[in-house]
Amino acid sequence: MLVVISDLHFVDGTAGDHNVSCDAFLIWMDDVLTLAEDKKAKTLDFLFLGDIFDLIRTAKWFDVPLADRPWGDPDINEHPTTLTNACRAKALEILEAIATETKSHLEVLRGEHSGGRHRVAERLKALTDGETTVRRLYVPGNHDRLYVVDSAIRKRVDELLGLTPGPITDSPSDHLYASEAHGVVARHGHEFDVWNFEGYGRSKQSGQYDPLDYQRVPIGDVITTELVVRLPMEVRDRLRAAGVRANIVDGVYARLQNIENVRPTTAAIPWIWYEAGAMSGSGHVPGTATPWSDTERDAVVTIVQEAAGAVGHDFMSLPFVRRWIREHDVWGFGWDEADKLQAIHRLLRAGFGIRGLSKFLEMAEFVQRLTGHEDDPQRGAAFNEPLLASADHHYVVCGHTHQFEQVALKVVNGHEKLYLNSGTWRPRFFLADNKRDFVEWKEMTYLVFFAQDEDLSGFENPPRSKGRSMLTWTGTMLKRGRP
């Protein structure tokens, strides 16, 4: 039995309180162990499919000079493992802070959580004392990219997740899991995202990538820290300097920290203006029932817009970003990623309103369609996955997008082939179809794949063709509307 979860994005709390409650993991583990017991599973593999530890969504990177951040050297991608000692020390400090914040969560993932009605450790021991082998496997993503760069980070992550030591025969590399027993091929999926993988577009159809591409810094890392994390901090500091009441500062700061949960990522900039617009029309401090004055509200909206422009300007001035734009700016007809960054910068500087940003998004979508831009590169890559030609592989699994999906790809020699996305375990803010509004809800997803003998469990006269089945679970919670 194979259980897949991804995109937990455990954080240290310095850029917002975004960790899922440990209770959710206890309920999840309870369900998984019940399945394993009912199926009399011979193996129970937990596959952590990337972005488990979020090493870049933290304010701690601003404790060190730019030169000691993972993207401080504009030439870092020519020699991606030559981080400064201060950078390596700070990364390990961030990981330890995350481990402290999620101590109970990690105990559940390692199977060491004891006591309480869920009895995780006791039930796992009963399984392993029987005929069940339990393994924990890991495929790193982009937010935990430093796992493939720094040996100390790798060693500590292995300990925190309780990973099975030694070579795992099912996994031909750090970045690809393949199992004939469960019929699964799995990657984190950032390989198909131009913003988050520097090897994007190279040998995409064959699924083969240069291991160095996983070490190189993608622009998405820099966006997350230098834009997404810094903006709420900049707004908070400017509000304090302006003498705004502390409860207003706290409310605005907490609200803006949700920017990293906005999907799609390209909607993060208009979300800032959406929040500013929501504030300008509200009679209450964000996230509270406390009234505020027109003067206070107008000051907050102005400061949010000014801070966005300043942070955007500083971001575009970073040596790494300037070099990235030069290398990714393709001359000719089209709308490349460098063009998008430059356009967003101009919008931030100009202080565009939500209507102007909506028109910009519509124009960008039109250009993408006109130039043949692939709307869902993960799904396209899954369709072309070479291992699907085998009768032993039926499922292509990715994470990364935070969007659970189950897609019928094709039938090959009578075998159904599916693409699945393992979703996320965190809140998400969605750009509505009117390109103006945003809606928030929380999600949790996990996938389970059964080996043939597990799938046949419970049949008195098992059919010979049965085997390698799967089930998915995804939960959504929308507790209330906006305050």
Descriptive notes:
The structure is a single chain. With 483 residues, the protein is of the alpha/beta class. It folds into 2 domains: 2-214 and 397-477, no CATH class; 219-329 and 334-370, no CATH class. It has 15 helices and 12 strands. The chain has helices spanning 22-39, 85-101, 103-110, 120-129, 151-161, 211-215, 219-241, 246-256, 268-280, 294-317, 319-328, 337-350, 354-370, 377-383, 452-455, and strands at residues 2-5, 43-48, 133-138, 177-179, 184-186, 262-263, 395-398, 405-412, 415-421, 427-431, 438-449, 470-477. Strands 1, 2, 3, 6, 10, 11 and 12 form a 7-stranded mixed sheet that branches. It has a 5-stranded mixed sheet with strand order 4-5-7-9-8, with helices on one face. Strand 8 (405-412) and strand 9 form a beta hairpin. It starts with a strand and ends in a 6-residue tail after the last strand. 40% of the residues are buried. Residues 363-374 have low confidence and may be disordered.
